[in-house]
Write a structure and sequence with these properties.
Radius of gyration: 14 Å
Order of helices and strands: HHHHHH
Number of strands: 0
Amino acid sequence: MRSIALAAVIILVSGGPVWAEGFGFLSGEQLLKNCQSKDMSETWSCQNYVSGAVDTIQLTQRLTMACMFIPPEGLTEDQAVGVVLEYHKAHPEEPWMSGARNVIAAMATAYPCRK
């Protein structure tokens, strides 16, 4: 079971343009648009997406014992969205990635695993 979950995480993390185009529900570009929107429903969509992705990744980490990032104690939804937005600003060449891949990359950059 752990091997299958770890393989799924590795595929998710290593995905390229095909990942966003052929698989996934939300592109990084759409996630960024929602996170920057003045429309409350799009803003909520962004917050829910980021929150769900972070929760899922943390659960996967616990099940597989594979570390992708270590968020600080008490990380809020707004802070997580801020991390994703900062990542987008620093990596404007990556909007083609899936929204989930963008969340993983942002969180791993901001809160790397201890070595």
